[in-house]
Amino acid sequence: MSQHQHKQVFIDGQAGALQALYQPGEAGKPAVVICHPHPQFGGTMRNKVVYWIGRAFEDIGCSVLRFNFRGVEQSEGEWGEGIGEADDARAAIDWLFAQHPESQLWLAGFSFGCYAGLQAAREDARVNRMFAVAPAVNLWSFAFMQGETRPVTVVSGSADEIVPFERVRSSVQGKANICFHAIEGAGHFFPEHMDKMMAALVADVNGE
Q: Most buried of the four, 1, 42, 84, 111, by CB within 10 Å?
């Protein structure tokens, strides 16, 4: 079990230094980059859902990196219309891979963080597996994921008040690489269902 002693680090990004929190895990276990929700609506790496996504991975021994997109808290730069934030995710992947070149590399995102993070992961063969919690498919186009064959875990609440559940469910139908987990009654931020979200997130990977 992780002690959750997160270390603050700064990562070199295209728009300047990116503030991050890093938790080293067990040797040989996967290393996970986690991307936070929309910066212009208060999203940061300290978002409650992002924190508990990190805890879910830390609890199975993974190394975890949460970071702030450009212009958030101590990260340099300014809002990049989603394109710049995908570049930030690429910088985070590079940094974590440098720390753990021997480990599987995973990427997880929450809401807007899925859009930015999955763009980066889609183009990077080093990423073995992806995770999308409440992906904002109604606000951003995920067409770039067409043809993806690597494993993707998608978690969505049936009572999501921001991203319609049926939009998420229909977006994953017929895709053999996607493991879809519906959390009955859960809202966008999983206020009463955080434990179920965490369990669903790692349900497909326990033992890796």
A: 111
